[in-house]
Structure formats: C-alpha cells, structure tokens
C-alpha cells in the first residue's frame, strides 16, 4: 500500500473527473505504485499552441491534476488538499499526435503541507517538463 491511505482504481479516478478540465483534456490515471502515480494525456488540437506543440498550460493542468489527486489519496478520509503553488520547467517540445506521461512522487508529506514532483515524458521517453506542486492539507468541512 505504501504512502496511499485510500484505494481507488485509476479508471474510477478518471471517471470522477467527467465534465471537468482534466476530462476535457483527456487526462487518464493509469497506475498507482507504492510511492508514485502515473497519468497520461494525448497531445491533439485541444492541447497545442499555434506553433503545433504542447501548450505549457496543458502541462501545468496535468501536473496539478495528478499532484492534487495524489495529495488526497495520501490522506485519511475527512481530509483534502488545496493547491498552494505550482511551477513548471518546459524542457523539450511535444508535437501534436504524441502523448505525455506524468510520473508523480512526493517530496514532502507533512501534516499541513505536501510537496509533489511531477516528471512528464513524451512518447520517445524524453523528459519534456518537470513540475512541482505544493498543497495545503485541510479538513473537509460539511458546509
């Protein structure tokens, strides 16, 4: 079970995002390991900038999506996370027709703050983006 306090199949997580930005971008969760998670995103006309390459904002949506889901999955029921800061370093282009795979691992799993690192690779395995997401841990409120 590793770092995860909740068990939800990856396909269920993908379904839960129906109608939201991650679903519009076709972000799919594919694997949860002992201390990591993987998600994929195609690169098509929804994801590119005018130059025909992956828009940096789409990479940030992928990073924040997988990092936030990991944040919640690493907490007991009754707790959630809220994004505090996200950054991204874009290292290589991803062209329309390719896909990216994100690998998310924790750097810090504290009681009040979590920090996640996300590496994105294109189809040929080249590192295209490195992102870091910082979240604040909050108790779920009933209102």
TrEMBL record:
Looking up Pfam families in the UniProt record yields: 4HBT
Q: Which ranges carry the Thioesterase domain? A: 52-129
The answer on whether this UniProt entry bears the keyword Hydrolase reads: yes
Alphabetized, the UniProt keywords read: Hydrolase
* Gene Ontology MF annotations: 1,4-dihydroxy-2-naphthoyl-CoA thioesterase activity
Query: Might you report a single GO cellular component term?
Result: cytosol
Keyword Hydrolase listed: yes
PANTHER family assigned to the protein according to its UniProt record, in alphabetical order: 1,4-DIHYDROXY-2-NAPHTHOYL-COA THIOESTERASE 1 (PTHR43240:SF5)
Belongs to which family?
Belongs to the thioesterase PaaI family.
The name under which this protein is listed is Hotdog fold thioesterase
User: What is the species of this protein?
Assistant: Roseicella aquatilis
């Amino acid at each position: 079970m590793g770092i995860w306090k909740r068990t939800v199949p990856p396909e269920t997580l993908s379904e839960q995002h129906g109608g939201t930005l991650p679903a519009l971008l076709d972000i799919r969760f594919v694997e949860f390991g002992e201390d990591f998670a993987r998600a994929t995103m195609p690169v098509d006309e929804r994801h590119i900038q005018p130059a025909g390459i992956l828009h940096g904002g789409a990479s940030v949506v992928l990073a924040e999506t997988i990092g936030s889901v990991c944040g919640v999955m690493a907490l007991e029921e009754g707790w959630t996370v809220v994004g505090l800061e996200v950054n991204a370093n874009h290292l290589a282009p991803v062209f329309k027709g390719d896909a990216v795979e994100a690998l998310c691992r924790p750097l810090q799993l504290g009681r009040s703050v979590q920090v996640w690192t996300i590496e994105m690779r294109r189809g040929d395995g080249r590192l295209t983006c490195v992102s870091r997401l910082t979240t604040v841990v909050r108790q779920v409120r009933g209102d």
